[in-house]
Specification:
By secondary structure, the chain is α+β, with helices and mostly antiparallel strands. It is about 60% helix and about 15% strand. It has four helices and three strands, in the order αβααββα. It has helices spanning about 1-15, 20-25, 30-40, 55-70, and strands spanning about 15-20, 45-50, 50-55. A three-stranded antiparallel β-sheet has the order 1-3-2. Helix 1 (about 1-15) packs antiparallel against helix 4 and helix 2 crosses helix 3.
Length: about 70
């Protein structure tokens, strides 16, 4: 699943995801994601570039793979 997850994210979003795109992947609202970020509770590493914040597709893939593994091995 690792390569498929990464390839799918890279194909759809490119090397980095905006916060709007990250909210879409996580199936949460952008406002909820903003709250998680301000409370430092976002489960995915993000970084700032200028005034905008991004997440690398690799960080998103790692999180999704971890969630999948956790669901398969309770």
């Amino acid at each position: 699943m690792t390569l498929l997850t990464r390839a799918g994210l890279l194909d759809k979003y490119g090397f980095r995801l905006s916060m709007e795109q990250l909210a879409e992947v996580l199936a949460i609202s952008p406002g909820h994601l903003a709250n998680l970020l301000s409370q430092q509770q976002c489960p995915i590493r993000t970084y700032k570039e200028g005034a905008r914040r991004f997440a690398s597709y690799e960080a998103v893939a790692e999180y999704l793979e971890k969630m999948d593994n956790d669901a398969r091995n309770p």
